[in-house]
Amino acid sequence: MPPFRFDNTYARELPGFYVHWKPAAVPAPRLLFLNDALADELQLDAAALRSADGAALFAGNALPDGAEPIAQAYAGHQFGGFSPQLGDGRALLLGELIDHGGRRRDIAFKGSGRTPFSRGGDGKAAVGPMLREVLIGEAMHALGIPTTRALAVAATGEPVHREVTLPGAVLTRVAASHLRVGTFQFFAAQGELDKLRQLADYTIARHDPALAAAPERYLALLHAVAARQAALIAQWMNVGFIHGVMNTDNMALSGETIDYGPCAFMEAYDPATVFSSIDHGGRYAYGNQPQIARWNLARFAETLLPLMADAEDEPAIQRAVAQVTGVIDEFPGLYAAALLDGQRAKLGLLKAMAADDAADRALVQDWLALLHARSVDFTLGWRRLADAADESEGRDAPLRALFVEPAALDAWLARWRERCARDDAAGGPGAGERAARMRRASPWVIPRNHRVEEALAAAMSDDDLMPFERLLIALRRPYDEAPELAPYAEPAPAEATAGYQTFCGT
Ligand code: AMP
Ligand code: MG
Q: Which ligand is closest to the CA of 123, given by its number?
């Protein structure tokens, strides 16, 4: 096997934050997916990994030299209720590699068997949900959204028992780190102040090294995490991504999207959209995601307070509370600014003077209200708007065709064109270039729920990976309006979307 050049800082520097553990042996490893481009990024030999040895490795039967598998401890608020001990119940961190860009990346298994954190679970994962994680994660990556990625999926040859019996699999996940809000909550809940400080300093060294010498470094860390989340959630919102289970253990401090379970993309625009079968109250509905991110950040802030002020020193505590509250209160503004930046790109507008923010926000709100009122497909609506920018080709017919009754749209288009004309009068890009830029800000292809399900069904029931592979090719070039990708751009029939439900895959 070609070498993995592991350098395992988490295992080395944070004893007491995990348990050493081994993946379970499985009967019949078979490689279902290998991410060649990601393997290259990690300076791994993709060709060599496509062998029987590679399958054994990615199924957990043969560890690469230098791997030090550990199950990490963490806690978390799940649907608002605190669980003091979660931890890696079916995951193991193998170690860290430095990629060709000099970035440190975690290499971890998911579905590699029971650990001391498994509680009632079997520690296993099924082929379908693991291939689903590949599809959605690669789509997010191609859309330019920070995300963990799948390096490989290996079938285990072992049945996994859920409501029905399913073929088992192990996914190898690559992440900037697996530090979560829940990791801090675990040690805060235990009152382990020294460990908490060690964890915070480790997080700063790993993700925000410039803050190590900052006078109030824990406050600065909170701010950095909040800024990354604001940017991330804004990107989710602008492509219609619904995470589905934004528990605090599923919020990564790196700012990457993590833990692909019941996530899915919205089709017809409706802020109340929920797909997850267990999200009865709609806590994690599309439109709630920004508030939930803020709520999670407040839970993170609480864990930092004991590091910022001595528990006996009441005035110092008051001051620390005021400081972290200031950051949490800043979050909506950070998010709104990031959202508007993305929306302006999608509207083909140049960043205006601050004085224009309110008018541009109203413009985008009115556009979204039109999509909502007419149940227009979010992705196609934006994409056809890009085409409509290209006046020289008279191309607003496809956009108008999405609306049953386009009169309200026409009034809005007139307002939008006037705003575009103002940009152009001030040296803006002009219609053709605007349309091209807008098409780079609004994808044509997203992981449509019916396409994802179709690909997974073929993989699971017929052992046919072709639909999965073809869909993956389309998802990796989301902005190209190539004729052969047309089947992937079509919305699902309304009946299919109306009752669509996703599951945690546990
Ligand atoms: P998740 O909903 O995937 O974020 O998982 C929440 C918690 O449940 C984490 O501690 C997981 O490690 C654990 N968990 C999820 N599925 C399983 C499983 N099949 N076996 C054991 N633990 C699991
Ligand atoms: Mg999780």
A: 1
Catalytic residue list contains 356: no
Q: Above pLDDT 70, what percent of the chain?
A: 98
* Residue 19 alpha carbon to ligand 1 centre in Å: 16
Is the confidence at residue 272, as pLDDT, over 90?
yes
CA gap 141, 70 in Å, rounded: 27
pLDDT-wise least confident of 189-198, 254-263, 392-401: 392-401
Is 86 near ligand 1, meaning CB less than 6 Å away?
A: yes
Spacing, Cα 76 to ligand 2 middle (Å): 9
DSSP string computed for 158-193? EEEESSSEEEEEEEEEEES---BHHHHHHHHHTT-H
Ligand nearest the Cα of residue 79 is 1
Contact 446, 485 (CB under 8 A): no
- Residue whose entry in the numeric block shows the structure tokens 């990457």: 256
**Rounded to the nearest 10 degrees, how much is the dihedral formed by the CA atoms of 246, 248, 253, 258?**
-40
d(CA 462, CA 166): 12
CB contact set of 248 (below 8 Å; sequence gap of 6+): 75, 76, 77, 180, 181, 182, 185, 296, 299, 300
In the chain, the amino acid numbered 427 is: G
Please tell me if the CB atom of residue 505 comes closer than 6 angstroms to any atom of ligand 1.
no
Nearest ligand 1 atom to the CA of 249 is 4
Phi, psi of 51 (to 5 degrees): -100, 180
Q: Stretch 108-120: mean pLDDT, rounded?
A: 97
Catalytic residue among 88, 106, 208, 249: 249
What is the SS3 assignment for 100? coil
Long-range contacts of 467-470 (CB under 8 A, 24+ apart): 468/33, 468/131, 468/134, 468/135
Ligand 1 near 121 CB (within 6 A):
yes
Cα 276 to Cα 89: distance, rounded to the nearest angstrom? 21
Cβ atoms of 241 and 273 closer than 8 Å: no
- Structure confidence at residue 73 as a pLDDT band (50, 70, 90): very high
Kindly report the protein residue whose alpha carbon is nearest to atom 15 of ligand 1.
506
Q: How many angstroms is it from 259 CA to the middle of ligand 2?
A: 5
